[in-house]
Amino acid sequence: MAKIKLTKNELKKQKDALKMYERYLPTLMLKKQQLQMEIRVVEGKITRLEETKKQVQEKATPWIAVFGETGICTADLIRVQQVHTERGNIAGVDIPLYKGVDLWVAPYDVLRTPLWLDAAISLLCQILELDMEIRVLREQQKRLEQELRTTSQRVNLFEKVKIPETKANIKKIRVYLGDQQTAAVVRGKIAKRAMERVSQ
User: DSSP letters of the chain?
Assistant: First the structure.
């Protein structure tokens, strides 16, 4: 605890600080709740997308075995060119919002490739699109969790340190000023009696 001056000016400064802490604390607590709620929403979206991805992957399982047999390499067949995002804002936090993905599909000869290749490419594109959306959501989650940590630290600082410390400082200054006032009254009475004795 920093050393404080035991003066009326310091008392006013401490009271002003206490008012500020008590005014900002509810706002910080509200922000903390909003961030917690948004994190749960993002986690729910991620869970749903991962479940959808799992279902699409199960549909793609038969094609994966066939790819190996025919010597077709999926890495050469489809690539992510660009992920489109937009800037969003939740509770004062800048987050990326998924807007889509551009996929590049290698040109292939329809007459020389197996018939199932079109369906397999479609499933692989779905999986890549889901992967990119999940990646953007994980970035949202990461940023929201970082802000939640910072906000929680501020709430704890105000709640457990600053407000109790400021209240203790105010009490200490009031007691000291009260003692000084009492001592001044006592000194005044003593001086008055001494003056009365001298004048008699």
Answer: ------SHHHHHHHHHHHHHHHHHHHHHHHHHHHHHHHHHHHHHHHHHHHHHHHHHHHHHHHHHHHHHHHT--HHHHEEEEEEEEEEEEETTEEEEEEEEEEEEE----TTTS-TTHHHHHHHHHHHHHHHHHHHHHHHHHHHHHHHHHHHHHHHHIIIIIIHHHHHHHHHHHHHHHHHHHHHHHHHHHHHHHHHHHHH-
